[in-house]
Amino acid sequence: MELARVEGTIVSTVKAEKLKGHKLLLVNMLGPDTSPTDNHVVAIDSVGAGEGEVVIIVRGSSARQTSGLANVPTDTSIVAIVDSIEFKGNIVFRK
Fold it and tell me: Tens digits of per-residue pLDDT, 38-63?
């Protein structure tokens, strides 16, 4: 699992049949202190995340094990919206 921040929405009218009905979001990977890495990936949203939210993503085969995404051709899925992060004894993020 990895931290990321939702930075945008991807709109695609022509896509694989199994991707239809799934929201695609552009996320920027984060360090543990929530600093951006400028490493962006496209992720399927399984939890209703929105722009600006800090989320937890999974990649690889774990991404396809997310509820509702079995047999969907994805490598990255959003599986949680983060409420707070404590790092080295300090709260570095709170929603």
Answer: 999 999 999 999 999 999 999 988 88
H helices present in the chain, as ranges: none
Q: How far is CA 7 from the centre of its chain?
A: 10
Domain 2-94 has CATH 2.40.10.270: no
Q: Which residues of the chain have pLDDT under 70?
A: none
Q: How far apart are CA 65 and CA 69, in angstroms?
A: 6
pTM (2 decimals)?
0.91
Domain spans of the chain, in order of start: 2-94
Q: Within 10 Å of residue 21's Cβ, how many Cβ atoms?
A: 8
| Nearest residue to 23 (alpha-carbon basis) of 83, 82, 72 | 72
